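Quarterly update, task 2.4: beta-D-mannopyranose-bound model.
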Amino acid sequence: MVRLRSGRDLFHRWEGNPVLALEDMPFRCNTVFNGTPVKIGNEYLLLIRVEGQQGYSFFALARSRDGYHFEVHPEPVLLPAQDRPWNDYECGGIEDPRATFIDGTYYVLYTAVSGRGYRIALAHTADFLSFQRLGYISEPGNKDGVLFPERINGHYVRLDRPFGRGIGSIWISYSKDLLHWGNSRVLLAPRPGYWDEFRVGASAPPIRTDAGWLEIYHGTKMTSSGPIYRTGTALLDLEDPSRVLARCDVPLLSPRTDYERIGDVGNVVFACGAVVEPDTSVKLYYGAADTSVCVATARLQDIVDCTLNGSRPV
Ligand code: BMA
């Protein structure tokens, strides 16, 4: 069993962090942060959120051979839509992509921002250079959408974060066609008195493990100087993912370094995906302080053990 030493995180930060920062960008922008990874063959692709100097966000693509050293494509790969009907819902930018490979297709959920609120958008792509929008799959007031990587009992399954009465909980929903969703119910709520007492939202698309679907999520605690964003985990039943089997009491990654504490929004680690390597090590990609992209690693079994029984700090 993994024992967390007080003040230590289970995830180990790469010594070369940040992976990407403003000086790595080939075009002028304000910041680069929350990114979603996929590994295709031996190449790592990272679809990253860039905030332009105008103030709204769009997406760029970074490529790597080792998962640590990335080079950014010279042009943005997805801008807020210009054409109807999409432009009505993206005029405030597009944020926080999450990529999932399902049945041979890469799908990307992202947050569409406009004066009407936040909506979850669905697109697909073959190469992460061009994207086809398929639809908005939520009404306003919803974000942090992630898709499970396979259909369960014939249904696509997603997690998201509808914003009822100012309380941000993770919900689960089901669909036959990825466009029409229903049977929604709350899955993980903020826990009073805990590090995730203020809000929670899905971070990474769920990862299949023998112990259940591993969901790496973000949780916040409100303080007198604003929220602190940390990373936690839960395990969901493989056959019925609306059943929570376990939830770690403690975060596995918390803002501690200068690059996580200082930036446009300080005290933020915000993951949008992870890569599980053949040796079962996990590379977690996360935005730090809304100002850079970082990577941290852990063994999948240690994450699962922590979620199941490593929840008491020692
Ligand atoms: C969340 C999202 C993230 C952001 C985080 C911290 O609500 O908007 O994109 O990284 O806040 O600012």
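Highlight for this quarter: The first strand starts at residue 12 and ends at 13.
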